[in-house]
Amino acid sequence: MVLLLVRIFISLIETKIKQQILAQTSASHPDFNSLKAAVLEIKRVADFINEKKRQAEARAKVAEIESKLFGDFPVWPLSSILQCFH
Fold this sequence. Notes:
0% strand; elongated
């Protein structure tokens, strides 16, 4: 839930910067390149958060499948094994 809220917040900031600040700033303005770099950095952070969220969802799905297959049977969780390969 927290990741979703952060993702929404970053998306709103990114959109606002693109639509309002960059659109109203002349390309010849001394801060234009810094603003453009800030937009790219916000996009990079948003992409990173989205990827981590996707990975967390995939791990949760693996845990759900493990639970259905093995129940409370004490086995080394597949999710732990997969973590070794990251």
